[in-house]
Amino acid sequence: MSSRKLKKLLKHSEHGENKSTFTIPLTNPIEKMTSLDFPKDDRAHIEMIAQSLKDKVRIVSFKSAILHNKHLFRGRVVLNLNCGVGLFALFAAKAGAARVFAVDNSNVVYYTKLIVQNNGYNDIIQVMKGEITEIELPADEVDIIVCDWMGQALLHQSTCVDVLYARDKWLKKSGGLIFPDKARLFVAAVEDERCKNRNIEWWNHVYGFNMNCLREVAIREPRCHSVKVEQLLSKQYPIQMLNLNKATCEDLYIRSKYKLRMQRCGRMDGIVLFFHVYFSKSHTRLAFSTDPWSPLTNWLQTVFFLDQSLSVNVNSVYYGGIELYSPASSHDLENIIVNFEMLKGEPSHAEFETAMNWHMISSRIPRCVVFKAIDRSNNEADGSQNVSTFQKHKGNVLK
Predict the structure, then answer these.
(1) Cross-strand partners of 332
(2) Where is the Protein arginine N-methyltransferase domain (predicted)?
(3) How far is CA 163 from CA 82, 149, 180, 277, in A?
(4) Which pTM was predicted?
(5) pLDDT tens, residue by residue, 7-59
(6) Which of 64, 155, 329, 385 is most enclosed, with most CB atoms within 10 A?
């Protein structure tokens, strides 16, 4: 546009002859949210919604679990807990559910209501906003609970406490189902010198100054990122199976022994945690994994760096104990403490190697990193093939 035309346009705008501005009416709370509100409710932000829906491994797994088990959903009452935009509720309705309650405490439910209406499921899906511990469902019981309850390293920022509450209050005592209902947590030794140098050792020398005090902070925070198979030093070892069909809040205190047999020589920079998820009530075996062998998910893998890296040899065995728990009595899974102790040698002549404790207080996942990781994963493999990819590696699990 020439400067002459621009001046003419501005002149007309000043006289009200060619107003080009307009105001969008604010009809619900989500449209009134600003940059001050979204940190408290980031799940209502369009980027976070897109990030969740682009996790093809997770979405296709839930889709298969629901639509491949229509006989379980047909005519049933379903509770979709922490529903987000209601995709799983839509799957349940499509599978023939008689009623679906889609519940979420986020303002994202205002989008959910529009999506449900636009897809013609208003008569089946009822969207409700609020904490599951504070709302009342317009039903005495439900047949099925569908919830994406897993968190980082399985527990951190998990919503399994909500599932346990809903199970005890509403789920039918005989024949009630939870999708998914089981998950198993694994640990393995990892070599990740590049990430450790970039995020931990970097603090030792910052523009010519010693900032080691910040290194002490950084070493206590786990990192969530993609770990390559070739970075693993040991076999994976199962440390906990969580079964939501019968678990209590006390079961969310994970305390387990472990045994790591090294498969190659290298430097052990830390340990990595990941998990498998199971829909055990499916009529066919259905599961997905967040392990390094499988296509990436939003959870990635969670790496806990040791203060001092260790040189390890092939076939050497390290063992000890690990625990994950919330220090708060209310089972606040936003705040997880991880304690770790490692020994080497025969049990009768065990040598102490190291002990660490970490504090999981933030997700540690930069959005841009997750977007790139998930997009790359989706380009490498079709989601329908990702559901059971990890099964071919199950031989690595130490029984």
Answers:
(1) none
(2) 181-340
(3) 9, 7, 11, 15
(4) 0.84
(5) 555 555 555 444 444 344 446 777 777 777 667 767 778 888 898 899 999 99
(6) 155
